[in-house]
Design brief:
It is a single chain. It is built from six helices and six strands. With 187 residues, it is of the alpha/beta class. It has a single domain, classed as P-loop containing nucleotide triphosphate hydrolases (Rossmann fold), CATH 3.40.50.300. Strands 3-2-4-5-1-6 form a six-stranded parallel sheet, with helices on both faces. It is globular and about 50 Å long. It starts with a strand and ends in a 20-residue tail after the last strand.
């Protein structure tokens, strides 16, 4: 297990901007010299953020295990295939957490994987359990690994052990008027 204390962040909600938000935080982190790992559970490595990270040689380690979003956008994969890809992502996440190598670990869309039953919420909580009680909160401000769990419908059990929970609320969205997802804005 990491010798650093763990701070769990949850970015959830039905509004647009969860991944966008944590990508902004990762930019801030690398600007401060922190080591960042981005693990994506439901996404393939062909989104605009992947191209930007590569093009500008940003020091963000990216690992994508998704085969596409589950049960939407013309998904042609079986539940077993999705479950296997999520299990591979979860194995990589546990390895990153235990490596003591990163300051910021982003588990993008993990809440969605849990919500669909592709990952077991109790397994995730068990891996993050040492963080349930914040140790050393008044000192050693650099002795933390921040782990961010993104995706809609974060389970109540995850929110309960988190140290920070942000919910992005959908007030109005142009999708409701028929505008499709746009490259560079939604993906």
């Amino acid at each position: 297990m990491t010798s650093k204390n763990i701070l769990i962040h949850v970015v959830t909600g039905d509004g647009k901007g969860k991944t966008t938000s944590v990508l902004g935080l990762s930019l801030r982190a690398i600007g401060a010299g922190k080591k960042v790992k981005l693990i994506q559970f439901m996404k393939k490595c062909d989104f605009s953020e992947h191209k930007a990270i590569k093009k500008y040689k940003l020091p963000i380690e990216v690992a994508c295990f998704g085969i596409g979003f589950y049960k939407i956008l013309g998904d042609k994969h079986t539940e077993t295939e999705h479950k296997q890809s999520c299990e591979k992502a979860w194995a990589a996440a546990k390895e990153a957490i235990n490596s003591n190598k990163y300051d910021l670990i982003i588990l993008d869309e993990i809440n969605v994987a849990i919500g669909f039953g592709l990952l077991n919420v109790n397994d995730v909580i068990e891996a993050l359990k040492p963080s349930a009680h914040l140790r050393g909160a008044r000192g050693g401000k650099n002795n933390y690994v921040d782990i961010i769990l993104t995706g809609r419908k974060a389970p109540a059990k995850i929110k309960k052990i988190a140290h920070l929970v942000s919910e992005i609320k959908n007030v109005k969205h142009y999708f409701d008027e028929g505008l499709e997802a746009r490259k560079g804005i939604e993906y």
